[in-house]
């Protein structure tokens, strides 16, 4: 079982930056591929990007590629989402998730709000 807690959300002006953190509990954190998602009331949950269990491979949605970077620190059991050049359309609740026994994202955090003002 993995528990995930996001932090780092807030209000930022367009063009600014934020770094989200996702702290994981559990001794097997390093085994999990991790992903970031976002959701607004108007849209379904949207994939943002993911990182492999060893941190070697990352993949990003087209909407954020070149602006967002995912990294992980195994020693701290934490995954990060560095968001640069933020746009108002990036406003959403951001969630981290971990791939679980089903092969899908079985574990989810509670989400953190990111608001980008124009």
Number of strands: 11
* Helix-strand category: mainly beta
Percent of sequence in beta strands: over 45%
Beginning-to-end CA distance, first to last residue = 40 Å
Element-by-element helix/strand order: EEEEEEEEEEE
Shape label: globular
Largest sheet: 7 strands, mixed
**H/I helix tally:** 0
CA radius of gyration: 13 Å
- List the uncertain runs: none
Helix content: under 10%
The averaged pLDDT comes out at: 94
Question: What does it look like?
Answer:
- This protein has 118 residues and is an all-beta fold.
- Helices cover 0% and strands 51% of the residues.
- The chain contains no helices and 11 strands.
- The protein has strands at 4-7, 10-13, 18-24, 34-39, 46-51, 58-60, 68-73, 78-83, 92-99, 105-108, 112-117.
- Strands 2, 4, 5, 6, 9, 10 and 11 form a 7-stranded mixed beta sheet that branches. Strands 1-3-8-7 form a 4-stranded antiparallel beta sheet, with no helix packed on it.
- It is globular, with a radius of gyration of 13 Å.
Write the layout of secondary structure elements.
Elements: E1 4-7, E2 10-13, E3 18-24, E4 34-39, E5 46-51, E6 58-60, E7 68-73, E8 78-83, E9 92-99, E10 105-108, E11 112-117
Parallel strand pairs: 2-11
Antiparallel strand pairs: 1-3, 3-8, 4-5, 4-9, 5-6, 7-8, 9-10, 9-11
Structure summarized in a few sentences:
This protein is mainly β and 118 residues long. It has strands at 4-7, 10-13, 18-24, 34-39, 46-51, 58-60, 68-73, 78-83, 92-99, 105-108, 112-117.
What distinguishing features does this structure have?
0% helix, 4-stranded antiparallel beta sheet, globular, mainly beta, 118 residues, 7-stranded mixed beta sheet, 11 strands
